[in-house]
């Protein structure tokens, strides 16, 4: 059968769509440059809005990968019609956790800073060179490779991290009870598909994107695709125009290639989410 054969909804939800659309799962290149410097990778993400068609394959792949509960989204795609008739256009805005670096003063993202269960135990991250890099865990914490992760065993279900995230990247997980308080729910958020990346495979949303509009890789490696795109489009130098809500001073490590100015035109791109406002009863 041709790789372009018709896919059933069940095949897509089961993950077969990823193979049929993109072939074998794409690998995350190992950073030789980072290994030589004895450093951890710094994972980053780019959404190329020139290529995004709003198909929401990313949302479906994420839902299937993690059994994300109804109403919650780890990867969402918003759309808006902007302009005045007859000069209107429809724009798309994929959103997920920005895996922020944190303010320049303390390098701690607001969701981590506000967590009452951080810092907790001492942990070790094994760098590319095999050496241990020490860091502190918690219910919400930042790893040396930049991933913002959560540990439900330590979660008290307070929801402060949801309130602290201006990007609406965290939702209540109505299918999960918090580890420390069984009267409350846990949370759900994008974790860059940690389990895949640790095995050298790109996140599921990146793998399934039919137009290669989602790019993931090591920003510490100058030879990685993300680093080359950051340099080619001056994404870091112009982060006020290439990242969401720059005034929040969270320093997102998720960039947008945005030739149409969607970040300045779309209301959702300028929206600061509050509470559990990103919760949706239907796919967006």
Adjacency order of strands in the biggest sheet? 10-1-11
**Sheet/helix structural class:** alpha+beta
Q: How much is the radius of gyration in Å? A: 19 Å
Total DSSP helices: 12
The percent range for helix content is 10-25%
Describe what you observe in this structure:
By secondary structure, the chain is an alpha+beta fold. Helices cover 23% and strands 22% of the residues. It contains twelve helices and eleven strands. The chain has helices spanning 9-14, 16-22, 32-36, 57-66, 110-113, 160-164, 194-197, 204-208, 225-232, 239-242, 262-265, 267-270; strands at residues 43-48, 75-84, 87-96, 122-126, 132-136, 140-142, 148-150, 171-177, 185-188, 214-218, 254-257. The strands form five sheets. The chain has a three-stranded mixed β-sheet. A two-stranded antiparallel ribbon has the order 2-3. A two-stranded antiparallel ribbon has the order 4-5. It is globular and about 55 Å long. It starts with 8 loop residues before the first helix and ends in a 14-residue tail after the last helix.
Key features of this structure:
284 residues; three-stranded mixed sheet; two-stranded antiparallel ribbon; 22% strand
Q: Could you outline the blueprint of secondary structure elements for this entry?
A:
Elements: H1 9-14, H2 16-22, H3 32-36, E1 43-48, H4 57-66, E2 75-84, E3 87-96, H5 110-113, E4 122-126, E5 132-136, E6 140-142, E7 148-150, H6 160-164, E8 171-177, E9 185-188, H7 194-197, H8 204-208, E10 214-218, H9 225-232, H10 239-242, E11 254-257, H11 262-265, H12 267-270
């Amino acid at each position: 059968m041709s790789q372009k054969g018709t896919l059933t909804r069940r095949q897509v939800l089961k993950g077969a769509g990823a193979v049929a659309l993109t072939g074998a799962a794409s690998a995350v290149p190992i950073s030789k440059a980072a290994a030589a410097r004895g450093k951890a990778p710094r994972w980053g993400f780019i959404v190329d809005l020139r290529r995004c068609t709003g198909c929401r394959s990313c949302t479906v792949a994420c839902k299937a990968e993690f059994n994300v509960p109804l109403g919650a989204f780890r990867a969402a795609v918003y759309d808006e019609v902007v302009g005045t008739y007859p000069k209107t256009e429809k724009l798309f805005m994929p959103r997920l956790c920005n895996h922020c670096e944190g303010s320049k003063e303390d390098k701690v993202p607001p969701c981590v800073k506000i967590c009452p269960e951080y810092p907790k135990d001492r942990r070790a991250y094994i760098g590319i060179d095999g050496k241990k890099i020490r860091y502190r865990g918690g219910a919400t914490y930042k790893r040396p490779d930049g991933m913002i992760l959560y540990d439900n065993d330590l979660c008290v279900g307070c929801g402060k991290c949801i309130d602290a995230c201006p990007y609406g990247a965290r939702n209540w997980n109505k299918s999960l009870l918090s580890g420390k308080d069984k009267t409350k729910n846990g949370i759900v958020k994008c974790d860059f598909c940690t389990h895949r990346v640790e095995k050298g495979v790109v996140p599921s949303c990146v793998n399934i994107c039919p137009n290669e509009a989602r790019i993931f890789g090591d920003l510490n490696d100058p030879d990685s695709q993300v680093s080359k795109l950051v340099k080619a489009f001056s994404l870091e130098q112009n982060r006020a125009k290439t990242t969401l809500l720059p005034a929040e001073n969270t320093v997102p490590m998720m960039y947008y290639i945005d030739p149409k100015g969607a970040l300045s035109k779309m209301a959702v791109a300028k929206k600061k989410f509050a509470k559990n406002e990103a919760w949706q009863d239907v796919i967006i």
